[in-house]
Structure formats: C-alpha cells, structure tokens
Amino acid sequence: MFIILMMKTVVRFFRQRAVKGFLKRKKPCVLPDISKYPAMAVLLDKDRFNRRAEIEKTLTRVFVMKNYVFIVFADSTQTDVKQDEHCFFVEKKDFNFWGLLRKEKKEALLTMPFDMVVDFSAADELMTNYIMSLINSRFRVTFGKSCQAMYDLVIDSKKDDDMPNQLEILHKYVSMLLGKR
User: I need a labelling partner for 133 at 20 to 30 A (CA). Which of 21, 42, 141, 164 fits?
Assistant: First the structure.
C-alpha cells in the first residue's frame, strides 16, 4: 500500500515538473484564422470518444475542418476501435516508470503542429495538462478546467452541455475575437 502511494507521488512530481516547465516557456497565443482551414486537435477520454462521429460531423460543419486529430486517453485500445489518421491514442502502456510519456509517443506529439487544441477530456487533470504541454499548438481551449494558466481561452460552460454545442460556442468566440461575425 505504501509503495503504491509512493509511486503515485513520484509520478505526480514528474508530471507537475513537466507542466511547470511548459508554463515557464509558454509562448503568447496566436488566434487561428478559422477561414483558412486550421489544423485542430481534440482531446477526448475513452467515454467521450464514443461520440466521435457526432463531434467529427460538427467539426467539419462548423470549422470546415480538413486537418484534425482526436487525441484519446484510454487504458488500452480496444480491437473494435478503428485507428486511422484522425486518431492518436495515449494509453497506460505509453507511460514509463516515472509517469512520463515514452520517447516515441512524445516525439509523435511534438511533431504534430496544430493551430488549435480543444480539451474535452474528463481525465485526470494533471495528466491532461501534461499531454497539453507536449502538444505543439498556438491556441489552447478548454471548457471549465481549473488550471487556467495552461489554456489561452477558458469557456465556462455547463458540465453536462454537449460537445457539438460547445464547438459551436467556441466557433462563435473565436470569430468574435478575430473581429468577424
């Protein structure tokens, strides 16, 4: 019992250190021009990934997306889940002993440039922040998370509000910030 508690503390320490390092070197945000087909990443947990088709339909309709990736937190990838160019799974086995991502996954995340990242995950906030610190993005959005320094735009919305509606709200706010109606 003590060893498990100690390991969780060690993992928390290394992830917090990585997040704090990111916050120190965080660059100013750059609003994506949504009329020029921005590249977008959407963070989901396994439960919300089940609504992928609905989210995908809204993304392509509202943002006119061509380049998007779902970054999914899962314990393990099920065999019935179709992995394609729009899915990037982060599983428990992808983390090393210290609770940090293994080199291959980390480099894969770092090499994918995005104009915008939207966090819909309900996963552990420290893990979400750690993954967000590895994503190469110019604009980060969340809906009601507590670590607001990690994000460029925090939209306070109802927790039970559906994700397609939240994407439409995000489109409205980004359009307003860009001076478009």
Answer: 164
